[in-house]
Amino acid sequence: MYSIKTMNKIAACGTDLLDKSKYVFGDNEENPDAILVRSASLHEMEFGDKLLAIARAGAGVNNIPVDACTEKGIAVFNTPGANANAVKELVIMGILMSSRKVTDAIDWAKTLKGKGDEVGKLVEKGKSQFAGPEIKGKKLGVIGLGAIGALVANAANDLGMEVWGADPFLSLQGALHLSTSIKYVASNKEIFENCDYITLHVPLLPDTKNLINAQTIATMKDGVRIMNFARGGLADEKAVIDALGTGKVAAYVTDFPSDDVIGVPGVIAIPHLGASTPESEDNCAVMAVHEIIDYIEKGNIVNSVNLPNVTLPKTGDAKVCVIHKNVEGALTKITGCATDTGLNIENMANASKKEYSYTVLDVTGNADGVEDKINALDSVISVRVIK
Q1: Is the pLDDT score of 171 beyond 90?
Q2: Per-residue model confidence as pLDDT tens digits over 212-259
Q3: Which residue range is the domain that position 349 belongs to?
Q4: Distance CA 194, CA 167 (A)
Q5: What is the pLDDT averaged over residues 130-147?
Q6: How many CB atoms lie within 10 A of CB 32?
Q7: Can you give the CATH number for the domain in which 365 is found?
Q8: Same domain, residue pair 29 and 43
Q9: CA 252, CA 163: separation in Å to the nearest integer?
Q10: Are residues 298 and 259 in the same domain?
């Protein structure tokens, strides 16, 4: 039996996929084979020797000590795209709210409570202060055209916006999902200089930290509206606040409130609701459980953040799955151990991600003893034999 520890409430449509003849799961499981987690922090958690994998039901993995997991041979998975539609809808709502001053108007309307028959007249008199432009025909710049960015771009295009997109890592598959009406540009600079609305859909990395800053804001059009539903650290909040004060930026909509931006005129701060839909939670749970099952039972890796994607059908008697350092000669030594044990390698798959590699051998013969042989190699982190 495999043991799965749930660190948060995981949607039943996901955990129901676990075959009860093979798996036990729950929040009380000790020394599990895998962990399913949403937002709970694992940074202070002691990982047992049995732990093979952690699956995050969501995209971000800031709550998981990824580097430490890699060193211990623990695969870390996320669920990219599972919450994409939920975030897309919130981004479109943010664009509309930023344009029409909806939140300010709602707050003002609440002050009319108790005015009785005067409410209608007061509404007509006061509504002009909340006038804002339509989005149709305006330029929207989408920085990052992954699962979420592509959906936002297509939806905005359908609403009549002129959509510009930038993503230096856009794949052929990603490009095929984009409307042909979207203008693909080579750099963020073109978006900063030309777009009326800008929305961010990139990960928070050293190269993207404070992507929105005083210098980039200075190149933007006056009255630009900025959406940040990706990560709080993508925007220098002081620079944004200063630009709101001068009118350079007309609105800043963020799903990552901080003490600095809450209550600032022009800021619409939403309490991280991007993936807070039942549909999104279901999608994430199902994808995370499938990733765990595929890895535990078949040794296949899909959507890992710390190890390369590798899938290989089992046609022989066993699969030998090896996580190892990406160093010269490692693969030759691993296959040598298999053949020295008397195994015939029917098929093989190998891929690397930065300093680490994952190798899967589909073998025929008696695999007893091969695990110890491979595990003795200096470059090897962990070995599993799946029969």
Answers
A1: no
A2: 999 999 999 999 999 999 999 999 999 999 999 999 999 999 999 999
A3: 308-387
A4: 16
A5: 96
A6: 22
A7: 3.30.70.260
A8: yes
A9: 19
A10: no
